[in-house]
């Protein structure tokens, strides 16, 4: 359960990453310190910054730069990869097309997902089947984004499939969270997230002057208050614009200002369920009151698409033996959210 936190903690996960494939990682003093910090952050805020993550800073900046170039193209060019249900909800959304709790959001975006081969998950996977839509311009957009996603997730890309490679930032963070909950490092592998699904949203938020025109919506919130769907999110945001806000227990909106060299990381709904509510998927929103156009690349590390998610036995025991949350199937949860977030 979130508390009345007033700021977002910063965690250096370098010691965790360096030992994350060691069978005895839990006994390492450096890992133990990181695990303790993860546990506190996940209980108190559901949000934290990670530094020492190993993703090259030039790449972190370049993905935002190339995203900004795309968003500055004419609408006619951007609409060549328009998101539709027929495209598996993959592609470009115009300003105001994304809906949060019935209200249009003041942002535009490209949404992409793990590519699902037709028939792989039967009816469960049907709405999300198909390849991602990548723009022709700027050049190398697809290649750069896929390189970035591979470092966040540990995936090598080929048509309609993903395969594990050695760079697995999100999986390694989840190994630390498994220990933080009191389980094993492999708690969120196998049938739970051994073939983790991923989502990436490349988002552009107009600055205040840009909101006064033909594309203005009735709402000035870039993205309304919501929780994320899966396990953990890595947020790569512009270095010079503060717009992300996180709600504490008292209902105050606490800013998560950009800190160069870090990602903002937060807990999703499925991890909240597995933890039996010990860890919170905290409400957050985006309000860009700056005159500048803001770019954010949000990477979401999710369970296996067909994973059945329910509170873990040892988390129930840590909660006084009371099961506080029900069961969900991740793919059903994702599809329900996607289909209500698209106008």
Automatic annotation (TrEMBL):
GO terms for molecular function: 2-oxoglutarate-dependent dioxygenase activity; metal ion binding. Pfam families: 2OG-FeII_Oxy (PF03171), DIOX_N (PF14226). It catalyses: L-homoarginine + 2-oxoglutarate + O2 = 6-hydroxy-L-homoarginine + succinate + CO2. Keywords: Cytoplasm, Dioxygenase, Iron, Metal-binding, Oxidoreductase. Residues 195-303 form the Fe2OG dioxygenase domain. Gene3D superfamilies: B-lactam Antibiotic, Isopenicillin N Synthase, Chain (2.60.120.330). It comes from the Eukaryota. InterPro entries: DIOX_N, IPNS-like_FE2OG_OXY, IPNS-like_sf, Iron_ascorbate_oxido_reductase, Oxoglu/Fe-dep_dioxygenase_dom. This is Fe2OG dioxygenase domain-containing protein. The lineage of its organism: Eukaryota, Viridiplantae, Streptophyta, Embryophyta, Tracheophyta.
């Amino acid at each position: 359960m979130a508390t009345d936190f007033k700021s977002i903690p910063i965690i250096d996960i370098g010691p965790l990453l360096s030992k994350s494939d060691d069978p005895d990682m839990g006994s390492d003093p450096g890992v133990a310190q990181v695990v303790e910090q993860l546990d506190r952050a996940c209980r108190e805020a559901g949000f934290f910054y990670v530094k020492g993550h190993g993703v090259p800073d030039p790449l972190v900046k370049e993905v935002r730069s190339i995203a900004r170039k795309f968003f500055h193209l004419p609408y006619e060019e951007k609409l060549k990869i328009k998101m539709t249900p027929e495209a598996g909800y993959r592609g470009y959304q115009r300003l105001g097309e994304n809906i949060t709790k019935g209200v249009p959001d003041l942002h535009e975006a490209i949404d992409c997902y793990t590519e699902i081969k037709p028939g792989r998950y039967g009816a469960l996977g049907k709405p999300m089947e198909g390849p991602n839509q990548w723009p022709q311009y700027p050049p190398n957009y697809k290649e750069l984004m896929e390189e970035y996603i591979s470092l966040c997730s540990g995936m090598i890309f080929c048509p309609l499939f993903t395969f594990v490679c050695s760079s697995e930032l999100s999986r390694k963070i989840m190994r630390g969270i498994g220990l933080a909950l009191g389980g094993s490092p492999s708690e969120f592998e196998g049938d739970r997230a051994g073939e983790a699904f991923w989502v990436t949203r490349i988002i552009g938020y107009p600055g205040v002057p840009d909101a006064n025109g033909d594309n203005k919506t009735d709402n000035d919130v870039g993205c309304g208050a919501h929780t994320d769907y899966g396990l953990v999110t890595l947020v790569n945001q512009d270095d010079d614009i503060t717009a992300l806000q996180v709600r504490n227990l008292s209902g105050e909106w606490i800013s998560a200002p950009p800190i160069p060299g870090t990602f903002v990381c937060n807990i999703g709904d499925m991890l909240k369920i597995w933890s039996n509510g010990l860890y919170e998927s905290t409400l957050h929103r985006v309000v860009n009151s700056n005159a500048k156009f803001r770019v954010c690349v949000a990477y979401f590390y999710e369970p296996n698409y067909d994973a059945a998610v329910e509170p873990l036995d040892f988390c129930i025991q840590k909660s006084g033996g009371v099961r506080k949350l029900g069961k969900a199937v991740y793919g059903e949860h994702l599809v329900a959210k996607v289909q209500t977030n698209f106008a």
